[in-house]
Amino acid sequence: MLRYSFYISFVIFIAGMIFRLTQWIRFDLDTESAEQSKVKRTFALWESLWNHMVSAQVLLMLKAFFWNGLLQARILKSSPLRWLAHMSIFWGFILLLLFHALDDQISVWIFPEYASTLNPYMFLRNLCGVFVLSGIIVALYRRRNKRIVRQISNWMDYSVLGLIAAIMISGFLVESLQIISERQFDNMVSDYMITDDESEVLALRAYWAKYYSVSFSQTVDRNNANLLEIGHSVHEDSCASCHSRPHYAFVSFNLIQLLAPFATVLNALHMDEVLLIVHYMLCFIGLAWLPFSKMFHMISTPLNYCMTASSQESKHLAASANGKIASLDACTHCGVCSEHCSVAPIYQVTGNDCILPSEKIGAVLSMAAGRHPIVLESLSSGNAVCTECNQCTNNCPSGIPLLDIWQGAKKELQKKGLSRPEDLIKTHSAYEWAEIWKSQTPTVLPYQSFISDDPQTYEACVQCSICTQVCPIVAASSNCGEPIDVTPQQVMNLLRIGLKDKALGTQMVWTCATCYMCQENCPQHIPVAEIFYELRNLAHAQINVKQTGEK
Amino acid sequence: MQLKYSYFPGCKISGLLPEYGASTQTLMNLLGIEWVDLQFNCCGYPIRHQNLEASVFSAARNMALSEHAHLDILTPCKCCFGNLKHSQYMLKNDFALFKRVNERLKDEGLTYSGRIEIKHLLSVLYHDVGLDRMKTRILHPYQSTTRVAASYGCHALRPAGITNFDHPFDPTIFEKVIAVSGAQTVFWPKRTECCGQPVFEKNPSLSNVLLQSKISDAIEAGADIICTACTYCQMQYESLGQNQLPVMTISQLLKKAISGN
């Protein structure tokens, strides 16, 4: 059964890898990429792989692979604690994979004397397990205790950590249950003992009960010195060459102390076999799930390090189209970008998670896959908030050129018809907007008192037109030959006669340069510029509603 | 007295204008101003068009961080300065907003009380360091024939009642700081007007008209150099100014007068 389970999971793994790798060809991050034929992009993928392999760039790439892939220098730079956790998980797991899971293929060749039940292998195996588990504890601690990281952590992050932890814990349990298993002992005796002498077997049982923690259902005299001495010599003849004392497996051995009261029941239920199957199955699930989960970053992230290390520019649009998607795939959802994101506080207020780079990257990927128009809207408004401070790119441990992706996405979203509010507002006149918005339920902004609703704000206006005369936008737009639709003084008048809805969509309100000339020069001390800010706030809220309403 | 501030570069310096940040840091070091980097976020200026609450919260988080470090904020950007000041004013006068903002900050273990001051680089140079002290450091003064036009930047000047930077229409501190370097300053009528950057994305041609009228005004006044003290103004001159006049930031200008490069 285990064999077939392995085959199934391996087939899923291979199919999944093909599925994920072909995404680099299938997905189009932007229109230029979409224009490249898929055949061309398939060739470009091979070509760029080949070109990199045979060029001198390979040295740079090897260096990047060594420092960032194996020693994970970029993670160390971003956070020493996270580096410690990730190195523990990574190296603990890799060593277990190579020398424990693949021991028949690797360990026996490198270490001629290798047996899984000999020291130092027992100790090292436990040590690796401890490294992985402690790394997972630190990773969980980070995900629970850093505010932004806690907010972005999803089921995938937790279930991957959970799966690896479950593999480790089941491994320890299997080892301790095998140590105490009477049946395992009996099988070994019948397989490897040359004599059939009952008394020798009895002596060996006593010896193993005392020194090897086997739990026998019938009582064994563990304190009979004579018996133990015979047991010792039998042990030396038949067992010692393959078995070290169990306390070297320091975690599993200590687990035995916990399991001791239930040893008889556990042995009777063949729990060692059950747990072994569980342990195997968890590993197979991990293998099959790898290409579909964030664990795929084991492949994509080192590849991205190599890709960015190479200064060789991709000559073809097709190759760069592939490269862009491949770099998106290098994301591990670690959340470091969002921790450093300059506009993360805006997310705290508006709740649009597409403001945070770690979430935006998923939305960009679904845009590339051609899915979810709703996601595109949040992406469009979230991406518009980005101030291009470049902190995400500077801090990304995977070395993804994030800012380039955001800038590309901005252009692409416009091509897809998701206009920025400042462009959308130009598509109708202020009066048309007032009609469009009339039919909608007014959006409630989180702050409720508006100065534009309070007549006292503008009732002192005498329409002296000083605001209009000092406004640089009014002057410059008439110099351009495209005079602005209404002047500041006229906006004030709209408010005075109760036509605030007609003021929201005016070009004057939206093109205001916020220089405060109007407000500072107003003889009646009317906060003209502040009112314009507020009207833009209200119009932004309305315009966002409209876009969603159309879908 | 040792001057010490938390240094608030703002997003655009780290992303698009690193040389302004680097020269400001060098200038602070040369003048013996101590500064620390805190984990600041956006000042909230760009989002204020869309969502005042988000803007004020962004600003408040920065100010709370600096309060926690018991330091006043020093920023070389006038838009950051203006928005931090404006948010401070809002939080002082709108108690409901103050409460909501603090409720949000509590999640991070921060509080905003309004204890610290927000200072622009120019105010620090003029008020805190002092012109006399700066003069003693000038080892490579500009020739007195060099004529510099100071481009003020709206968001520090106005609304003057909130920013308390200088006179909203007839300011002097920028010229006084430039004069320390040995150069001559020119008077040009449009020095306190908008550079056009705020409408750059919405209407590039209009933005260019605004900038060009400023540049031709400076040329008419006989300026050799335009000097800015704002990240956004500098970006605007660099992207649309097309080398009509050399444009440099105040930190580059003073750094050169102090250290010779």
Structural account:
The complex is a heterodimer of chains A (551) and B (261). Helix content of chain A is 69%, strand content 0%. Chain A is built from 34 helices and no strands. In chain A, α6 (80-101) runs antiparallel to α8, α8 runs antiparallel to α10 (155-180) and α12 (198-211) packs across α13. In chain B, α2 (18-30) packs across α13 and α3 (52-68) crosses α5. The chains are: A mainly alpha (551), B alpha/beta (261). At the A-B interface, α20, α29, α33 and α34 of A face α1, α3, α5, α8 and α11 of B.
Which quaternary structure do these chains form? heterodimer
Q: Report on the biggest sheet of chain B.
A: 4 strands, parallel
Q: Helical residue percent of chain B?
A: 40-55%
| Overall geometric form of chain A | elongated
CATH top level of the largest domain in chain B is Alpha Beta
Could you give the order of strands across the largest sheet of chain B?
2-1-3-4
**Approximate strand percentage of chain B:** 5-15%
Radius of gyration of chain B: 18 Å
Helix and strand string of chain B, N-terminal first?
EHHEHEHHEHHEHHHEHEHEH
Helix content of chain A: 55-70%
Low-pLDDT windows of residues of chain A: none
Alpha carbon gap, first and last residue of chain B:
28 Å
Show the largest interface: A-B, 50 and 49 residues
Defining key terms:
heterodimer; A: 551 residues; mainly alpha; Fumarate Reductase Iron-sulfur Protein, Chain B, domain 2; 34 helices; 69% helix; B: alpha/beta; Rossmann fold; 4-stranded parallel β-sheet; 13 helices
Kindly summarize this structure in a few lines:
With 551 residues, chain A is mainly α. Chain A is built from 34 helices and no strands. The mean pLDDT of chain A is 91.
